[in-house]
């Protein structure tokens, strides 16, 4: 049987979801760090942040030289198939999957 190469041009998590999760993890994250974390240009990451802000998924406030982001609680998915579910449920899963210190001294991924 012939082996088929895996398709690498798509992922389950969109750049919009990934950026929103990164902002939830670090509300003062820099645009360049968002871009680097998603493999995007700063311009593309900025466009996504503006998309999310204009759709009501986050707010942005200037604090000195930095932006401070806040994910809007209670927002729902945009597609009717998931529209009754809160985006926060997915974001918390993604934040738990991301690199960060373990809870109460436990390494990440231990489920504790």
TrEMBL record:
InterPro entries: ArsR-like_HTH (IPR011991), WH-like_DNA-bd_sf (IPR036388), WH_DNA-bd_sf (IPR036390). It comes from the Bacteria. This is Winged helix-turn-helix domain-containing protein. It comes from Streptomyces solicathayae.
């Amino acid at each position: 049987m012939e082996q088929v190469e895996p398709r690498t041009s798509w992922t389950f998590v969109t750049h919009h979801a990934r950026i929103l999760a990164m902002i939830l993890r670090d509300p003062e994250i820099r645009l360049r760090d968002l871009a680097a974390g998603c493999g995007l240009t700063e311009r593309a990451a900025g466009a996504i942040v503006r998309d999310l802000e204009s759709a009501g998924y986050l707010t942005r406030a200037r604090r000195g030289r930095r932006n401070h982001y806040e994910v809007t609680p209670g927002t729902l998915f945009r597609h009717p198939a998931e529209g009754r579910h809160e985006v926060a449920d997915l974001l918390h899963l993604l934040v738990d999957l991301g690199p960060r210190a373990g809870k109460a001294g436990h390494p990440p991924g231990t489920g504790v």
